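lol ok so funny story. i was supposed to be doing the assay writeup but got distracted and ended up predicting the structure for this chain instead. priorities right. anyway since i did it might as well share w the group, maybe its usefull for someone
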Amino acid sequence: MKKIISIVLAAAVVLSLASITGCKKDADTIKIGVAGAHSGDLASYGIPTTKAAELVAEEWNAKGGVLGKQIELVIEDDQCKAEVATNTAAKLVGDKVVAVIGHICSGATKAALGIYKDSNIITISPSATNPPLTQSGEYPNFFRTIAPDDAQARLEVDFAVKELGLTKIAVLHDKGDYGKGLAEFAKSMIESDGIAEVVLFEGITAGAVDYSAVINKIKNAEAEAVIFGGYHPEASKLVGQMRKKGMDTVFISDDGVKDDTFIKVAGEYAEGVYATGPKDTSSNPLTIAATKAHQEKYGEDPGAFFLNAYAATQAIINAIDKAGSTDYEAVSKALRSEYVDTPLGSISFDEKGDAIGVGFSVFQVQNGAYTEIQ
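and the output, tada:
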């Protein structure tokens, strides 16, 4: 019996020591989550965010970290799916992260935000543009380093109507929070302006192979242009199938399409397509440095939303440093009161969580590459 008791006591001591060691390890680092699509069709949006966070964390860690501790990234894949994002968020909460860089897609972001809110975890997305995420006031823990879709839709409509002089526009979307939200803004703006006409407003099924039915509707409606709210997999199919039918209808889309993956998939049919996206800041010295660091570490140019994610990571770490704490209220206050120099420029955040100092431009695929034109 004594032997059994001794074994039990020894085991208890080992477990206690393990627990203490684990706590010490947690206390020695500041954990920041990175959530987004790291696999699947939209991985080209999420992987650049992971790389941006890694580069910024490495830079801070090389200088001693923040608050005297090293930054530890906890990376989780949500595949840009709402049903996966809730599990991703739960895992990050369980890992005791103090903030999250992400999510990437608006639908996944919305699904996860309530979980972070309940745990007082700040979330900064480089790409979730759905306006209600900040404008509803429901998520005071949410920030983003990209302008919202109402600004993006305004730019697309003004470009189509005022710059290109188009009067008959078909507005399509992929039925998702991001795509449908942007399309609804575009439709409303066209109608309220009274200059052009929405000749077709319709949602398509994401992931479908054949879009002949809706393309025939576009043709029958005599639309001069399509404004599409959604992502590059659907956009590449729509454009390709339209062009194969001999249609030269102008195609205007969003930052979900302003990605080199769209050009690679759509091939020759991508030429001439317009898409809105974050302003070109390639002349910014910090952009040049961040791009060079990416090239040296990963052997290639950075992908979509890399700079926005770089800025998001800089912003949260800077806020923790300025607050002198990882306390939710203190860091939130610092995000809204402090400016930080980033590849996007010197940015801060307003009371809603939208970035001050960022915006969109119109790009066009010219000679196989996106070129900023407005």
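The chain has two domains: 23-146+282-358, 150-254. The longest helix spans residues 2-27.
back to the writeup now i swear
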